[in-house]
Design brief:
The structure is a single chain. The chain is an alpha/beta fold and 412 residues long. Helix content is 22%, strand content 31%. Strand 5 and strand 6 form a beta hairpin. Helix 1 runs parallel beside helix 7. 43% of the residues are buried.
């Protein structure tokens, strides 16, 4: 086993959160040693394009790098790539990697994200069955695409819909399966779900709702997807987008509190000494969900929590209160979301979906809690202020697309 190396800050995870934590530490004047331990061989890169531009062949990998490779060297940030942390000794302030290295830390920032949830059925491990989480995942798909014409996408969340759109743009025959009675059921209201179902069908995607997968069939390579009803869909490839499992096992094993993720306080501190957690795996009380404990899987959340932790480490502690936002590109549709719509009791539509440019405003007891804006950037920008102000606008004015949302802000 290697001799123990020592860094003032060790960051576990080379995604958006881990990269931003290192960047923000240097931006805020931190002069100590920093190491970023990343499971992938690549330096930190943007993940959202994987299921969009990168899969569609419209953006090269070099344009997805969060910073050029030279940046990390110039800032004296050590990238320890191609390895993952398997154990934490919280008392000794030390982590152990799968390569046998022992690395000591003054502070530990856990930004390991999550791994794609796998199908539990027979055939889930056949060649041609893919998830979309890493560059390597999508590279394997791209390598197989010339021989794959019939693709079944399992899961009607953002990843599944984005992958379906990218594959249709490449001329593939695509069937999309969703177990619930609408797509985007976890993250959007019914009006937006129905709009995206219709948009995908208009582009030739065979969207099937309320269906369960029985098993995947094939000898070594997938040849079909058998539904619970017994129907078999021929398939040269399957793309599985059914969520992620937060990567927190070493933290929980070391004694950190958690369940669906690792529990952090308002400063992103875990219950272990000198250990922070950020991004997809951090279970926190979110002010935009009335204080409910949740994980927010977005670049915004990862970046904002990373910056908060970096400032705390240099002596500027704060409280996490960042406004959640998210985006998704499918075909010619740019969806921008602000706030959290879970638990809304009313939804008001602005504009006509037939024009492919409209917004849905979500209310809870009359208060604006979120917006979904399709090709409506102005509503997104102005609506954000409504969410942040907890505005309670007149519903009729809210529904009138000729009334700018900024006119509905409460007077200060």
């Amino acid at each position: 086993m290697d001799e123990t190396q020592m860094f003032d800050v060790v960051i576990v995870g080379g995604g958006h959160g881990g990269a931003q934590a290192a960047i923000a530490l240097r931006q805020n004047g931190f002069g100590g040693s920093i190491a970023v331990i990343g499971a992938e061989p690549d330096p930190p890169y943007e993940r959202p394009p994987l299921s969009k531009d990168y899969l569609a062949g419209e953006r090269p990998f070099e344009r997805m790098l969060i910073r050029p490779l030279a940046f990390w060297q110039e800032r004296e940030i050590t990238l320890m790539l191609g390895r993952s942390v398997t154990a934490i000794d919280a008392a000794a302030h030390r982590v152990t990697t799968d390569t046998g290295e022992r690395i000591g830390y003054g502070r530990l920032i856990w930004a390991a994200g999550g791994s794609p949830r796998r199908l539990a059925c027979v055939g889930h491990d056949l060649v041609g069955v893919h998830t979309v989480r890493t560059r390597a995942d999508v590279d394997r798909m791209i390598d197989e695409l010339p021989e794959a014409w019939r693709v079944v996408v399992i899961g009607g969340g953002y990843i599944g819909l984005e992958a379906a759109a990218a594959l249709r743009r490449k001329g593939k025959s695509v069937v999309l399966l969703e177990a619930q009675d609408r797509v985007l059921a976890r993250v959007a209201g019914e009006a937006l779900s129905r709009f995206y179902e219709a948009a995908h069908r208009a582009e030739g995607v065979d969207v099937r709702l309320g269906v369960a997968v029985g098993c995947l069939i094939g000898d070594d390579r997938i040849t079909g997807v058998r539904l619970a009803t017994g129907e078999t869909l021929p398939a040269d490839m399957a793309v599985v987008g059914i969520g992620i499992e937060p990567s927190v096992e070493p933290l929980i094993a070391a004694g950190a509190e958690g369940g669906n993720g690792v529990l952090v306080d308002s400063g992103c501190r875990t219950t272990l000494p000198d250990v922070y957690a950020i991004g997809d795996c951090a279970l926190h009380a979110n002010a935009f969900a009335d204080g409910a404990l949740l994980r927010v899987e977005s670049v915004q959340n990862a970046n904002d929590q990373a910056t908060l932790v970096a400032k705390a480490i240099v002596g500027q502690p704060g409280t996490y209160h960042a406004t959640p936002w998210f985006w998704s590109n499918q075909f010619d549709l740019k969806l921008q979301t602000v706030g959290l719509s879970a638990g809304h009791d009313d939804a008001i539509q602005r504009g006509d979906p037939a024009t492919r440019s409209f917004s849905v405003v979500y209310l809870k007891q009359g208060r604006v809690v979120a917006l979904d804006c399709v090709n409506m950037t102005k509503d997104y920008v102005q609506g954000r202020k409504l969410v942040e102000a907890g505005a309670r606008p007149d519903p009729e004015q809210l529904a009138d697309p000729t009334v700018p949302l900024k006119a509905l802000l409460p007077e200060t």
